[in-house]
């Protein structure tokens, strides 16, 4: 199936890390790509847009940002809908073709001991309930064809938990969610990306000043490495580009799941 000639891409969590890398790759890899990045920080978004506009494939494309904090459980529906509505007002042609969700609040990986259900809710509001809210709302704002996609983020911890985070991971089965959402959203496709360790500010929070933690993570993969954000972005591009992949958990974890 031919790719769209225009691809309007919204990256929620696109100011840094894997989201920003996906926005950069979308501009060079998707025909007629227009990119809007969204996150809670205006400063970071302005920097991200500067980076995107400086790229070699930015000419004649819409590159913009929307500030939106999606971490408040009580207002999340309105907050996500405001992002979608603003995006459709900005994108040429109106509707969105691809939505990537890489927004993350506080990390479950940094929770110690035995997290409470409140900890689980805090860690899950942006990563779990956010994408679910998005999928509940998105169809009206998207081109309703199998060329369109929603790609959400998951991680190896779901399959290889470390002690003490069962409570959090119980709510975090985004790969299962992607399968069910693919059914609900069809023909729009829904996939998750199962990530291993990726060098971003999020991972820096775990490894900064702790080379032994970084070494441990790299050694836990088959390829003995931590991925670059650009490598992780390739998995999101696959989800966007292949109009026959839906309900899939796309692995990008360096073989960590079979070590
Ligand atoms: N890096 C890894 O090793 C790894 C491994 C497994 C899974 N993951 C998952 O991959 C996804 C991307 O992570 P990353 O490593 O790229 O992290 P990152 O660089 O920290 O990016 C997280 C993004 O989320 C945004 N964000 C944070 N709080 C927000 C809020 N309240 N409202 C809206 N946006 C918010 C951040 O922007 P602002 O600060 O500007 O709001 C940023 O754009 C996450 O879901 C993460 O759990 C990452």
From TrEMBL:
Lineage top rank: taxon: Eukaryota
InterPro entries: NAD(P)-bd_dom_sf, SDR_DHRS6-like, SDR_fam, SDR_PhqE-like
Keywords: NADP, Oxidoreductase
GO MF annotation: an example: oxidoreductase activity
UniProt family annotation: Belongs to the short-chain dehydrogenases/reductases (SDR) family.
Name by which UniProt lists this protein: Uncharacterized protein
Organism the protein comes from: Recurvomyces mirabilis
């Amino acid at each position: 199936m031919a790719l769209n000639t225009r691809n309007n891409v919204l990256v929620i969590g696109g100011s840094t890390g894997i989201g920003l890398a996906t926005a950069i790759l979308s501009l060079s890899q998707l025909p007629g790509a227009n990119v809007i990045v969204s996150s809670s920080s205006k400063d970071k978004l302005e920097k991200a847009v500067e980076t995107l506009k400086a790229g070699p494939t930015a000419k004649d494309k819409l590159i913009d940002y929307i500030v939106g904090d999606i971490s408040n459980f009580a207002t999340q529906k309105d907050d996500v809908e405001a992002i979608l509505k603003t995006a459709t007002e900005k994108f040429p042609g109106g509707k969105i073709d691809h939505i990537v969700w890489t927004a993350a609040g506080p990390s479950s990986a940094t929770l110690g001991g035995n997290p409470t259900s409140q900890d689980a809710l805090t860690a899950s509001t942006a990563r779990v309930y956010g994408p679910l809210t998005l999928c509940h709302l998105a169809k009206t704002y998207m081109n309703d064809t199998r060329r369109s996609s929603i790609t959400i983020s998951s991680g190896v911890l779901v399959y290889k938990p470390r002690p003490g985070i069962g409570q959090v991971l119980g709510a975090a089965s985004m790969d299962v969610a992607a399968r069910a959402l693919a059914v609900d959203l069809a023909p729009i496709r829904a996939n998750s990306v199962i990530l291993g360790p990726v060098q971003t500010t999020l991972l820096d929070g775990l490894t900064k000043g702790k080379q032994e933690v970084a070494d441990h993570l790299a050694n836990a993969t088959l390829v003995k490495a931590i991925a670059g954000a650009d490598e992780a972005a390739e998995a999101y591009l696959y989800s966007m580009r292949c109009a026959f992949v839906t309900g899939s958990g796309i692995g990008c974890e360096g073989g960590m799941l079979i070590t």
